[in-house]
């Protein structure tokens, strides 16, 4: 319970709060129509979402709106935006917007919520009817609107208006008929964001933090723990050899040894056993327990309480899986505890994993988890969707034959490219040609390239000593590394790159130390990110313990370097 009687909120006793509730309210539009039917709105008012975090001085914007109405009696709404940069990390898909306004007055002439769209089509007549138009793509929607008294009646006249987006688009379409106008105010200072999903929750929290990591009072952390871009609540217990990246652990969370937590949220008193890996997008409700050795799949959502069969909850956006009457021991382990919370049946029919990430966890505007937007207009990468083609649809012996043949052609291309000093662009074109011929995914291209480079010294001399191999590989890398770097553009392909090096180290034990040298060199070249290296290191299987021993000195150096960097 939150007590506000003695807080700042109660110092000024000029505001009264009236709560309206009804089972028939299914949208913001329904509430506006109810306000109109009861004639409760008689003057300008501020329409604000309950999940808003803002430092804006709203009184200033309200005064500005009132002055604007003196010159434009038909002004219905002023929308508040915060100026930012395109594809800023705080903008997610559902909030990205393009707005075209009259430059002289900031009157809105075009509005589009982008969602997944990469292009926006603005009607030609907008430019023909105005001397100058400004297109705003670098703004964050605060979801705060300064409204005139005419707004509730407009919702009543249009029963298809469910939210402000419907309202804005409707007024633009019917501008000549209704005569109403809308304006925007773009603020260059202050803060305003709508925390509508977990991506926004994460982004807003990161903006609030002065450091990359915040650890609550009474929390205990074991040895060799790496935490980045995360918040750890009070009285938590973190075991040894744990990697926590981009995650939120609320109060009283317990995490065992050798765990990997990646972009997840663990609510109060969640218990995670030893050797547990929690994949991106997972949300664990209060008191959920995960047993030792469990790998929790991407986007898993668990709750501790049993399924609710109350029919009154049938209209909710998210439904509990009513077929799940017992704990799934395969998911949480023999000693685990947790029930699956599924999305609605309509969304379950959607096979697009990226759509689920957008709708359930939320997705940064520029990327989903492992797809980073790179400036690669002249590169082969632009035409490859890593999220969709991470696994080839071709299976079986034919695919294995294609991979083998592709590997042979890549090896020949690198061999000839080094001997004949072929230009980088020509080698890439040659590899791309083979890639398309055999329908090879981008991840397989990276894997094959790394293995081909590491095996190339043996093409010159099959009986190389360890020292001779290292020297030869160094010379080859100087000429050929950039061919590989052309394809390593995301955390996903970086991870694939490390797996390929690990495979070489496993199969060529006498030359495994050169694999460590390559990883360090590519880290120094800013091709491999330390968080990806940590994730790979902690996921090396026990059967490859010798590889872990070889790489451990570098990992120790990497941890110390990051600690020094954080200290600075």
TrEMBL record:
Record text on subunit structure and interactions: Component of the translation initiation factor 2B (eIF2B) complex which is a heterodecamer of two sets of five different subunits: alpha, beta, gamma, delta and epsilon. Subunits alpha, beta and delta comprise a regulatory subcomplex and subunits epsilon and gamma comprise a catalytic subcomplex. Within the complex, the hexameric regulatory complex resides at the center, with the two heterodimeric catalytic subcomplexes bound on opposite sides.
SUPFAM superfamilies assigned to the protein according to its UniProt record, in alphabetical order: ARM repeat, Nucleotide-diphospho-sugar transferases, Trimeric LpxA-like enzymes
Residue ranges of domain W2 in the record: 400-568
Disordered: annotated segments: 373-396
Stored Gene3D superfamilies: 1.25.40.180, Hexapeptide repeat proteins
Localization terms from the record: Cytoplasm, Cytosol
Keyword Protein biosynthesis listed: yes
Identification of the protein by name: Translation initiation factor eIF2B subunit epsilon
PROSITE patterns xrefs: W2 (PS51363)
Domain of life assignment: Eukaryota
Keyword terms, alphabetized: Cytoplasm, Initiation factor, Protein biosynthesis
């Amino acid at each position: 319970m939150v007590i506000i009687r003695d807080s700042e909120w109660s110092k000024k006793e000029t505001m009264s709060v009236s709560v309206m509730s009804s089972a028939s309210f299914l949208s913001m539009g329904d509430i506006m129509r109810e306000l109109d039917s009861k004639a409760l709105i008689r003057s300008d008012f501020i329409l604000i979402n309950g999940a808003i975090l803002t430092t804006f001085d709203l009184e200033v914007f309200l005064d500005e709106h009132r002055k604007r109405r003196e010159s434009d009696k038909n002004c219905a709404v002023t929308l508040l935006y915060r100026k930012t940069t395109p594809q800023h990390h705080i903008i997610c898909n559902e909030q990205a917007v393009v707005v075209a306004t009259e430059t002289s007055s900031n009157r809105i002439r075009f509005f589009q919520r982008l969602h997944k769209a990469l292009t926006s089509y603005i009607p030609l007549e907008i430019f023909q009817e105005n001397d100058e138009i400004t297109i705003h793509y670098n703004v964050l929607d605060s979801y705060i609107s300064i409204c005139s008294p005419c707004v509730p009646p407009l919702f009543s006249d249009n029963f298809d208006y469910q939210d402000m987006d419907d309202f804005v688009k409707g007024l633009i379409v019917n501008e000549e008929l209704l005569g109403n106008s809308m304006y925007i105010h773009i603020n260059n200072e202050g803060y305003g964001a709508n925390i509508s999903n977990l991506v926004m929750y994460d982004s807003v929290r990161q903006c609030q933090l002065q450091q990359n990591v915040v650890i609550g009072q009474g929390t205990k952390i074991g040895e060799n723990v790496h935490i980045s871009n995360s918040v750890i609540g009070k009285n938590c217990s973190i075991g040894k050899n744990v990697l926590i990246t981009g995650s939120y652990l609320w109060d009283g969370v317990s995490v065992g040894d050798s765990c990997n937590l990646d972009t997840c949220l663990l609510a109060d008193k969640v218990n995670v056993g030893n050797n547990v890996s929690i994949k991106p997008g997972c949300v664990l409700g209060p008191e959920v327990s995960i047993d030792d050795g469990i790998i929790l799949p991407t986007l898993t959502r668990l709750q501790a309480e049993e399924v609710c069969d109350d029919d009154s909850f049938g209209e909710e956006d998210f439904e509990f899986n009513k077929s799940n009457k017992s704990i799934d021991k395969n998911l949480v382990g023999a000693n685990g505890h947790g029930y699956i919370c599924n999305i609605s049946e309509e969304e379950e029919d959607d096979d697009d994993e990226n759509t689920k990430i957008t709708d359930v966890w939320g997705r940064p505007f520029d990327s989903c988890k492992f797809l980073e937007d790179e400036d690669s207009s002249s590169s082969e990468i632009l035409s490859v969707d890593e999220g969709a083609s991470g696994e080839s649809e071709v299976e079986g012996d034919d695919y294995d034959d294609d991979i083998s043949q592709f590997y042979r052609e890549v090896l020949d291309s690198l061999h000839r490219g080094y001997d004949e000093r072929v230009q980088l662009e020509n080698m890439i074109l040659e590899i791309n040609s083979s890639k398309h011929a055999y329908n090879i995914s981008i991840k397989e291209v990276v894997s094959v390239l790394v293995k081909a480079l590491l095996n190339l010294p043996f093409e010159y001399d099959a009986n190389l000593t360890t020292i001779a191999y290292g020297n030869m590989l160094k010379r080859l890398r100087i000429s050929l590394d950039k061919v590989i770097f052309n394809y390593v553009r995301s955390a996903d392909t970086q991870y694939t790159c490390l797996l390929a090096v690990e495979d070489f180290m496993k199969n060529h034990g006498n030359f495994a130390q050169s694999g460590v040298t390559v990883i360090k060199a590519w880290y120094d070249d800013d091709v491999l990110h330390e968080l990806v290296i940590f994730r790979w290191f902690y996921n090396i299987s026990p059967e490859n313990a010798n590889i872990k021993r070889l790489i451990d000195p570098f990992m120790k150096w990497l941890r110390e370097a990051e600690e020094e960097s954080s200290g600075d």
